[in-house]
Automatic annotation (TrEMBL):
Official protein name in the record: Phosphopantothenoylcysteine decarboxylase (Trinotate prediction)
Single GO BP term: coenzyme A biosynthetic process
Keyword vocabulary terms for this entry: Coenzyme A biosynthesis
Location of the Flavoprotein domain: 18-190
Organism per entry: Myxobolus squamalis
InterPro entries: Flavin_trans-like, Flavoprotein
Example of a GO cellular component annotation carried by this entry: phosphopantothenoylcysteine decarboxylase complex
GO-annotated molecular function: FMN binding; phosphopantothenoylcysteine decarboxylase activity
Length: 194
């Protein structure tokens, strides 16, 4: 199935398919997004991707070219009544998946900061629809007391955490903070959509 990733035609609903928006933030775990997209698309899911500036540094070129970035914010808007991309994406998505969720964006979301396309979408996304987030950061960042407070706040809004795992991290440390396995994320997403 052809996915018109970044065109207005790509915002149409297709019967029998669910729409997922993956928001990618600045964690090395973003290298798993290609595999995540591939696995989700096997489940009659249409995927669109939004990346923060720091998240884009970790994406493979074929994923980055399909991704919405900050410079796309007013791509379709010329006058009053024209589509505004963060609103269109929030309406289009049946589920938002923030994978990976870095410490910076976690702080922004929990504080209500909307200073990029990703955080604008999250703020515009109805809390009546599922939003899942997959924390991914260094162990000392994950273990910081503010992280628990911020994650608890997101959960209190109805957002669902796909918890991180312990493993050898990119920095060479071993500990909690690695993004959950792709298979686990796909399992949680498909369960929430059914």
């Amino acid at each position: 199935m052809r996915n018109d990733y970044k065109s207005m035609e790509g915002f149409c609903r297709i019967e029998g398919f669910k729409n997922i928006l993956i928001i990618v933030t600045g964690s090395i775990a973003a290298v798993k997004v290609s595999e995540l997209v591939e696995q989700l698309e096997k489940n009659k899911i249409i995927v669109k991707i939004v990346s923060t500036k720091s998240g884009a540094k970790f994406l493979e070129p074929h994923i980055l070219e399909k991704s919405f970035v900050d410079s796309d914010s007013f791509k379709f808007w010329k006058k009053i009544g024209d589509p505004i991309i963060h609103i269109q994406l929030a309406k289009w998505a049946d589920l938002v998946l923030v994978a990976p969720l870095d410490a910076c964006t976690l702080g922004k979301i929990s504080s209500g900061i909307c200073d990029n396309l990703a955080t604008d979408i999250i703020r515009a996304f109805p809390v009546s629809k599922p939003l899942l987030f997959c924390p991914a950061m260094n162990t000392t960042m994950y273990d910081h007391p503010i992280t628990l407070i911020q994650i608890s706040l997101l959960k209190s809004w109805g957002y669902e955490e796909v918890p991180p795992i312990s493993k050898m991290l990119a920095c060479g440390d071993y500990g909690m903070g690695a993004m959950s396995h792709v298979e686990e994320i796909v399992k949680v997403v498909t369960h929430r959509l059914n």
